[in-house]
Records
---
Amino acid sequence: MTDADLPFDLTKLDQLAEVIVRVGLNLQPGQNLLISAPVEALPLVRRVAAAAYRAGAGVVTPLLSDEEVTLARYRHGQDASFDAAAGWLFRGMAEAYDEGAARLAISADNPMLLKGQDPAKVARANKATSIASRPAMEKITGFETNWCVASYPGRAWARQVFAGIPEDEAVGKLAEAIFAASRLNNNDPVAEWSAHDARLQKRMKWLDDQRFSALHFRAPGTDLKVGLADNHSWKGGTGVTKTGITCLANIPTEEVFTTPHAQRVDGTARASKPLVHQGTLIENIEVRFEAGRIVEARASSGEEVLQKLLDTDEGARRLGEVALVPHSSPISHSGLLFFNTLFDENAACHIALGQCYSECFTDEVAADNAAIAASGGNSSLIHVDWMIGSGETDIDGIRADGTVVPVFRKGEWA
Ligand code: ZN
Ligand code: ZN
C-alpha cells in the first residue's frame, strides 16, 4: 500500500508533522530525536523525520513496534518472560535524554489488542516495563527534555471507534477527528496553537493566584473533595523543560491540571466515561475515598482489572492528578469515545490514580523528591486517568480560610 491509497487528506498529515516538530517538540537545531511508533504509523513517522531534518535536527532515530510481535509473546512466550523487560533499551533512552535528545511517541494502536490475553500476564508484563522504564520515564515526566505524544489513525483503532462501517470509511473519520482535535482546520495551525495556549495559560494563572486548598466536585454519583498538594502549581498547554525549551507535550490538549494531596481526598466519584485499560473496557466505575485512599471500588464490567490496577502498589489507590476540561472542548463536542487516553482525557474533567507530576509543584519543591512527598505528592508505578466530568459537573474552589469560589458550573468555566 502506498501513501496515495490512504483514505484521508495527506496535506493534513504534512501539517500534523509540522505542528509536532514546531509546536509539540519545538525541536532545536542540532538536537537528536527519538521517535517510538507502531509500524502502521510510518507515513507520519517519515513526515516527522523530514520536518525534523528541515528544522535542523541532528540524528532522528525511529523505534517501531508491531502488534503481531506483541501478540506473539502472549501466544508463545515462556511464563518467566512476562516478568522481564528490555532494560537496556530504557537505559539507552535515558542516556539519550541526558545527552539532550527530544522524544516523540506516536500512538495508533488497537486499544483492544490484548483483549482475550491472560490479564495476569498483561499486568506482569506492564509492571516489569514500568519498573525498567522508570529511569527514562522520570526524565520525561520531570521535563528534563522536550517531548510530545501525538496520534495517527490506525486501522484497528478506527474500527473500534467507528464500529459497523467499512474500514476505509472508519479510518477516514478517525483521521478527520484527529486532525480537528489537533486544530489543523485552518491555514495556520501553528498560530492557532499559540492562541489556544494563551487561553490555557490565562486559566492556569487565575487558578495559581486563587491558591485553593481543595476542589469540590459535584455531579450525579460524584461528591468529591480533592485536597490540593501544598506548593502545587497548575500546568497545561506548553511547558518549559529544565533545559529551557518550550514544548507542548500532548497533541491534542485541552486540560489544565495539578497535583492532589495524596492524604486529603474524601467522598465518592463516578466515572463519566468508560476507561480502557490493557484491552479491557472498565465501565461505570464508582469509588469511595477516605483520607486520600480508595477504600471501595466497583465497576459494572472489568472490575477484576480495576482491582488488579488498584493493587499494583500503595500509591495506585491514591491520586496523582486532577484536571479541568470544559464540556465544550472540541473533543467532547465530537461525542466520540476514542478508547485512547490522549483524546478521552481531553474531553472531560478527570482524575488520575498513581504517580504525580513533579512539574505540578512550585520551582523550589519540583526538583526535590523528598519535598514533593512532604507536600502531598503521590508516588506509584502507574498513572491512569479516568473521566469524572460531564455537562452536569459543578466545581467549587475552597481556600484555606474556607472561602468558596465557583470554578465550573454545568461543565463550563464559571
Ligand atoms: Zn490529564
Ligand atoms: Zn494524566
Note: Residues 255, 257, 321, 323, 345, 350, 385 surround zinc ion (ligand 1) (CB under 6 Å).
---
Amino acid sequence: MSSSLPSVAALDSEIQSVIRTAGDFARQEFEVFNFDTVEYKAENDPFTYVDVRTEELLKEGLSQLIPGAGFTTEEAKSQATKNGWEWIIDPIDGTSNFTHGIPHFSISVGLAYQKKMMAGYVFQPVGEVMYHAQKGQGAWENERPLRISPRADLPYALVATGFPYSDMGWRREWVDLVVNVLDAAHGVRRFGSAALDLANVAAGRLDVFFEFNLKSWDVAAGSLLVQEAGGLVTDFQGGNDYIYGRQIVASNGHLHAPMLALLEHFTALVFPPTGKS
Ligand code: IPD
Ligand code: CA
Ligand code: CA
C-alpha cells in the first residue's frame, strides 16, 4: 500500500463492508439493549459491551486491509503505525443516545496518512446511512453527493453543538456562549453524536457545528466530510488544530467568520496564550 489516493479508492468498498458488518452488530444489540448492562469509565462517562465489541469487529476487519496501519480508538489502547497509515475510530458515537434507546448514534472511521485525513466514514446503523468522503474526491450520503448549505445569514442558520457532561470545566462559560449563539442564530440543536452533526453540516441540513473538548475519534472522519462537501473546518481561532486541539468549528464557509467572532470571548478565556486550559 503506497500513499497514493487511488489505493484508498480501491479499498473503499471493503472498508464500507467492514463498517456495515460492525454496524449490523450494533443495530441488533440496540434493538434488545438492557440499560442495566451500562458500565462507567468515570462519572457520567458510560460505555457498553456494544462499544467494545463493535470496535473489535472494526479493528479485526480493517487491520486486514492495510497491514501495519496504526489504530487510535476510543475503547482500547492506541497501536502505533508502522507505515504512516492510521485508523481513527469511535465505534459508537452517541453512546448516551444508544443506552437510552434513541437511534441517533453512529460509527466513525477516519483514515489518515502521515496525519492527513485521506478518507472518512460516518455510518448510522439505524437506517443504514453511510456518509463517506475521500480526500479530493468529494463526499456522499450513500450514493448521493453531499453539498453544504448556501445560507449566508446567521439569523437563518441552524447550529448544532454539544454540552460538557464528563469534564465539567468551563461549563458555565460554555452555556453563556450558547446563549449568545441562540441570540444570533435561528436555532441551536444538541443531538448527541458529533460525527453525525458533522455529517449533517456536510449534507447542508445544519449550517454550523461547534464543540469544545472533543477527541480525535469524534471528528476525524466528519471533518473530511464537511471539507469534501465544500465546507470549512477550523479550531476556535481559525487555525488547523481541530482534530487534536479539543476545539472545532465546522460550517458552510459563509458563516465561519461570524461564528468565530461569537467564539472570541470563550476562546480568550479557555485558550489564552499561557495559563489555564
Ligand atoms: C460524544 C458525542 C457527543 C458529544 C460528546 C462526545 P460518545 O461521544 O459525540 O455528541 O457531545 O462530547 O463525547 O461519548 O458518545 O462517543
Ligand atoms: Ca464520541
Ligand atoms: Ca464513543
Note: The pocket of calcium ion (ligand 3) is lined by residues 51, 74, 90, 92-93, 95 (CB under 6 Å).
---
Amino acid sequence: MKQTIERIKKEAINELEIASDVDTLNALSVKYLGRKGIVTQYLRNISELPPERRPEEGKKANQVKKQISQFVNAAKLRLEKDRSEFDDGLDVSLPGRPMIQGSLHPVTQVTWEICDIFAKLGFHIAEGPEVEKDYYNFEALNFPKDHPARDMQDTFFISEDVVLRTHTSPMQIRVMEKTPPPLRIIAPGKVYRCDSDLTHTPMFNQVEGLLVDENTSFGDLKGILTTFVHQMFDDRTSLRFRPSFFPFTEPSAEVDILCLICRGSGCRVCSHTGWLEVLGSGMVHPAVFENVGYDTTRYTGFAFGMGVDRIAMLKYKIDDIRKFFENDVRFLRQF
Ligand code: PHE
C-alpha cells in the first residue's frame, strides 16, 4: 500500500506539471480527487486494511490528497497570472503607435532651395570652417587691422588670430587659393556675430556667391541676382541696388527687394519704406585677387552674400526670427 499512494502522488504531480491550461487542471483534479477519483478510491479502500494499519495509511493518503489539491490551486493561479500579464503588456489587437517623422528645418529647406537655383546657373557648392583665421575672415578680404569696417562685424574672438567667422566671405579666399579661374561657387553655412534682438541672433545662416571670369560686369551681377530673386519669390518682385561699402568689393551694392507683404505701399515689415534688404554684393576688389595670386589684368568677378534666415522669413511671412530657434514643433510642423 505504501508504494501505491507514493506512486499515485508521483503520477499526479507529473501530469499536473505539464498541464498548460485551466481545463486540463480541472480534469486532473477530477481524475485524482473527484468523487470517483483515484485518491478518493484509495481512501475508501483503507477500510479494508487490518485495523492497526488504517490510521497511518489514512493519514498518508489524506496528506497526498491535500498536496494534490494545493498543487492544482497553485498551478491555476500561475496560469491566470501569466494570462493577465499577456493582457497588460501585449495586446496585439491595440492599434500601433505611429512613428513620428520629422522634417527639414525651414532654414535648411530655404538653404537647399537657394543652392538649387544657383546650381542650375552653373555654381558649385563649397563648404568651409566656422572657426576661422583672422586672415580669411578679414585680412585677405582687404580689411586691414584696425580698419573701421571691422566694427560692423561684431566679432566673437577665439584668440587674437582666430574668430568665429562673421560672414561666409572667407570661403571666397579659401576657394580661390585652391582653384584657378574661371569659377562659380556658392558657399552656404553658419556665421556668428555678437548681436541679439528682434531681428538678430548670435548665430545665423548665409549663402555666399562668387563668380570670376574674363569680361564680367556689374550687369552680369544684376542679371544673376534678378534671376535668383524671381525664382525664389516671383517675377513681380523687383530689385533695387543701393550703393554701399565692403572692403572686398568695389563698387559695392546692397540689394533690396520690393516688400512681399505690401508690394511697395509701405507696412510694418518694411518699416514703411516699401523695400526689404536681402543681400550685399559687388565687383571683387582687385586687392582680393592679388591676395590669392589671380591676374587682375585678365580677370574680374562679382560676389554676393545673403542672409538665409531673412529670406526664409520673407518666403514664409514669419514676423519674428527667434521662432526659428525655439524648437516648437507646432511652428516647425507647418513647413
Ligand atoms: N559678407 C558681407 C556681409 O556679411 C556680404 C557680402 C558678400 C558683400 C559678398 C559683398 C560681397 O555683410
Note: The two ends are 86 Å apart (CA to CA).
